[in-house]
Design goal:
The protein is of the alpha+beta class and 374 residues long. It has 15 helices and 13 strands. Strands 1, 2, 3, 4, 5, 10 and 11 form a seven-stranded antiparallel sheet that branches. Helix 2 packs antiparallel against helix 9, helix 9 packs across helix 13 and helix 11 runs antiparallel to helix 13.
């Protein structure tokens, strides 16, 4: 299969996808009711969409094409409202978060569908372990060459989005010590991690042809890279974020990415090189493990910086772009969240209060479901 041409799209347009947990209101474990919820929301209003994910306790919602923070936030809130009403009829709850705190992968059921059964047959138990929940953000690009340039330029900022969105400290009843344990499940797939350092769409087409010739790859969907091009949409897709606990934070993260892309494209503060990836895996691990308290290495200066401080400096540089894109509310919300802590921090504080006995994990999940409704 040849790589399709890159479809031009309006630069800096946004599309947001959120994978969500479906919960039993009895014990707040995952509930395999995706098919029921999809039927209940068939006639939803609005331009957004809803579709199944790999296992039956998950759904994915996707925004329409957006350009500004306020309309994106309003659409995500409308999605939440309609989904909550449908879920209430089915006596289930919905929550964000990158992992469910105590579900067991062996109990999950693959959603019926050709693509999902293919993944299950190919990857075995990893398919069920992929019951994790992320936010994906698409950014419009005018052509394939510019898309690849932006993809590589954003590699330095991948730890920002991991740390800001991290909401998966618990896995199968245990505190993992990671702020984003979700990405450990993604790492297990052989075609995960970083994209190859190619700079032109023609060169990327040659790489794609070699991969398909091996039989390892059939389509772009087989790449689970942190950032990947989506030629059919005319976008690059950032895939490292955990699903936040609120739709407002999801909107803020998307618009932070939009502002960052505008700054990179217009100012071109550096030219990405292969050497940018020398510290990529280390920086990524630091963000997953320690969140905002992690340390990252600048690939050019080789200096270590606290991740929280690097994000603060980055947001400060974006004020002009945020003003032009009407995203100051989004960047300010993220700036304030740096001092409050990310969602993983919130979940841990709920689980282990300063005084008193630990809160049962079912109560933690229930609180997350309530927060998603706020």
């Amino acid at each position: 299969m040849a790589l399709q041409a890159f479809t031009p799209s309006e630069p800096l347009t946004l599309g947001v996808e959120l994978e969500l947990q479906l919960l039993s209101t009895h014990d707040f474990d995952l509930a395999p009711q995706a098919e029921d919820l999809l039927r209940e929301t068939t006639k939803h209003t609005g331009a957004w969409d809803i579709k199944p994910e790999i296992t039956r306790s998950m759904i994915e919602i996707g925004s329409s094409i957006q350009r500004r923070h306020a309309p994106l936030q309003a659409e995500l809130r409308d999605m939440r409202k309609q989904l909550a009403a449908a879920a209430k009829k089915l006596n289930i709850a919905i929550a964000g978060g990158g992992t469910h705190a105590y579900q067991h992968w062996s109990q999950q059921k693959i959603f019926p569908g050709e693509r999902f059964h293919y993944i299950s047959e190919l990857y075995g138990y990893l398919a069920k372990q992929f019951t994790v929940f992320g936010q994906h953000v698409h950014v419009g690009c005018p052509d394939g060459d510019k898309a690849l340039w932006l993809l590589h330029a954003l590699s330095r900022y991948v730890p920002h989005f991991i740390a800001l969105s991290a909401s998966s400290p618990f896995v199968q009843g245990q505190d993992t010590g990671f702020d984003s344990a979700r990405l450990n499940s993604v790492f297990a797939f052989p075609l995960s991690g970083r994209a190859p350092f190619v700079r032109s769409w023609e060169e990327f087409g040659s790489f794609f042809d070699k991969m398909t010739a091996t039989g390892v790859v059939q389509s772009m969907k087989d790449f689970y890279w942190d950032i990947r091009p989506k030629p059919e949409f005319g976008t690059i897709e950032l895939r490292v974020c955990d699903t936040p606990l609120s739709v407002d934070k999801a909107a803020a993260l998307a618009c932070y990415l939009q502002c960052l892309c505008r700054q990179l494209v217009e100012e071109r503060p550096f030219e990405p090189t292969e050497d940018d990836y020398l510290v990529y895996t280390f920086n990524r691990f630091q963000a997953c493990r320690f969140g905002l308290d992690g340390e990252i290495v600048d690939p050019k200066t080789k200096q270590r910086t606290r991740l929280r401080d690097d994000i603060l400096r980055s947001i400060a540089r974006l004020d002009e772009h945020a003003l032009d894109l009407e995203a100051l509310d989004a960047t300010q919300a993220l700036r304030e969240s740096l001092f409050d802590g990310n969602d993983a921090h919130w979940l841990r504080q709920l689980r282990q209060p300063a005084r008193g006995a630990p809160l049962p994990l079912a109560a933690v999940v229930e609180a997350a479901a309530r927060r998603w409704l706020d």
